[in-house]
Model the fold of this input.
Amino acid sequence: MPFIANTNAQQKEMLGAIGAGCIEDLFADIPARLRCGELDIPSGLSEQEVRNRLDALAKRNNVDYISFLGGGFYDHYIPAAVDAIVGRSEFYTAYTPYQPEISQGTLQAIYEYQSAICRLTGMETANASLYDGGTAICEAIMMAAHITDRKRIVIDDSVNPIYRKMVRSYTSNLGIELVEIPSRDGLPDPDAIQAALDERTAALVLQTPNFFGCVADGSNLSARIHEHGGLSIISTYPLALGILRPPGESGADIAVAEGQSLGLALSFGGPYLGVLTTRKKFARKMPGRIAGRTTDTQGREGFVLTLQAREQHIRREKATSNICTNQALCALTSLVYLSLLGKEGLPEVAKVCADKAAYARKRLLQVPGVSLQFPAERPFFNEFVLRLPMAADKVIRRLFLRGIAAGFPLGRYWPEMDNCLLLAVTEKRTKEEIDFLAHALEAIL
Amino acid sequence: MKTLYDKSIPGRRATRPVESGVPVESSLPTALLRNQAAALPELSELDVVRHFTGLSRLNFGVDTGFYPLGSCTMKYNPKLAEVASRNPGFAALHPLLPQLSGGEIMVQGALAVLYAMDRILSEIAGMAKFTLQPLAGAHGELTGVLIIAAYHKDRGNRKKTMLIPDSAHGTNPASAAIAGFKVKTVPSTEDGLLDIDALAALLDDVVAGLMLTCPNTLGLSNPKIREIAERMHAVDGLVYGDGANLNALLGRCRPGDLGFDVVHINLHKTFATPHGGGGPGAGPVGVAEKLIPYLPVSVVSERPDGTYYLEYDRPKSIGYMSPFYGNFGIILRAYTYLLMVGREGLPRISGNAVLNANYVLARLRPHFEYPVKNSQPCKHECVLSAARQAKAGVRALDIAKALIDYGFHPPTIYFPLTVKECLMIEPTETESKETLDAFCDAMIAIARLAEEAPESLRETPRTTPVSRLDEVKAARELDVAAS
Done:
């Protein structure tokens, strides 16, 4: 079913108006030797058949387990009203709001999203344009290089390892020097970072809570990069900012995040939401689309895409970025989520995550053979690292058989931490589930 | 409309907190905590639902009406794709699962979708293999040019420049610049096609490639495309295909057969996934055989026993373009659409997309200037110029705004940059003759008003909740967050 409305009779009538004999005539300018025959793909199916096939494929995925898997992507509860609103096709079948008079819904939502994100991060300006948390770091780095006219980046290695790989791919041809600094006992190593910073350094990149779940105090490190005239880029976990001190109060010049925790489904890796915020003085150096408030010819308030002179449809190769998406639907999703949770609800959810994680850590440490990888006093939000008496990979495999996704094996990215398991606890996990994990772990160790 | 923040009432709330139920409290040090709650809205669930329902009614989408935005392929988005993407078997799937020991078996359905999409897209585009990682069209471009850079580096070529036609999307040069290339612009001739002589003059040892949109942004296919590709290949330059306009070619010819080495496809255009107010999209990239080693990690592969796995050991790869496997939810929607459309549906799509565009062109050509000296039929879109109307002071912008009052979304305007007062119209195959006629009638009525009462068009639109907005003020007074 190719969703074509015109009947054969209408097509004939239209061909007559064009002065063509058949549709094939309209392709006469493509030489016959360049044409393809019938393609080797399946024949079309009815909606019912397609639905059955997709349901069968979905059943070949297993989502029926108790999850302690995080690593930057979290299983939070999403209120029903989120999907009810985001599912309105006036939102999802529109495109980039090029015509503001008939796009005030999308534009105002982006403006409100920018506002919510600024309030949450303590920053002054945000866009709604980036694809995910990784591309947000990459764009932040390119932005910092533009602003400072420097080409050296110092990055702490407790930043999500997948994002660090993305940064390498993105900057591979830009002459940017990447200096990765090993973390120490779960936190950025201030001495090593201090030693690595110099007058050529465009930015210091940190993440808090970091990949190990530890919460770092970014203020001192931000101050150190500022002493060298560089920028502080802090990647964060937006839901955690319900209770944690925001990057804007820790000296960040650019704060970025993966926005998935704010009401977006895990969806096997996307679509997600790249959060990017900065100081007002750098607004004109930001990549992507930005909505601004203005007035119409009659003085009524309204919203438009603004600062477009930075963008590639005008600046082409001199643009601040090649981004022309605005991740509007994902930004809308997180805005609806933040509106429903609200001023009181977001800190409550964040607190429940932290409390349940604190309980889980305490409970799991009672299992013989289990210890902490990092010092016990390391502050953590809802994720922590356990050291096990055997390879974490093995433990994960065995716990799958008991219906538990126990976490992420750090050995995958830090070979010396082969026995280390990263566990995340969200508000969806119950005390009973945590106790069940503890019993299961005890049984297999 | 009042903002969420204007409507906020201290103490009001929409959700009841979940109980922690554990006998322990987190003990984060005060220095790491917020000293006051973020000033998020305080509203009831009904407040929130009404607010956003209100906002949605200020929007215009494909489901609202005709949306002939050129180069954006605003076709109908089938509802089954939305249902499929929300199936918990897909929506709740954690992307790190397949990286865990014993986790691969838990995501076989999702890997099957990715593998099938690689195969289907490869067959449609005539390429050897696709990566589904790129998260948008421009992200696909960046992936593609990074692959070109990696290819040349691997061969020891010292390539520096990327050639890009003057009619190209602005993202092309921006993407090439991020991949480290110097951009050189290739002019078009009067017939709207790439100037082959000018191209030949630009070819030298340091040319890495050419980024070509096919059909181009004037809606024209280039009959000399093979010759262009051969000339590029003769200097070991690669040809990149911007697949934004692939809808015109579906099931009739394939970029790979035309000589393209790398191509990106916008799933949100050609394969009917919703545009979402600007995103999320997806921009898978297909490559010829010789470029497979440079594709991003990971790559989905099939074992002889029919199970799927992810390959990470790819020493020549450009690395990671996105954290996982692309915008899976979007890829799944496109897969849903392709299962419904099937092989026999593809040429019908391109045929009707091209028929609709030529019909609009035939009806409007007497009333507007056709800016290219070319007698070829247009493909999926047509460009017109409002140069004639501009003489009476009615610009492309005025025509666009006037169309809004007739209930239509305006075409793309002022693009491509090579056409003065450009109106770029892409009707897509899902629109009916009645809709096209109503649109053409409106365009003709506006053309008549431009002659008879040009001043009446300058205050349009009149039927919208706001009239034309002050963009200069927006940029100068920069209010981008509610205070």
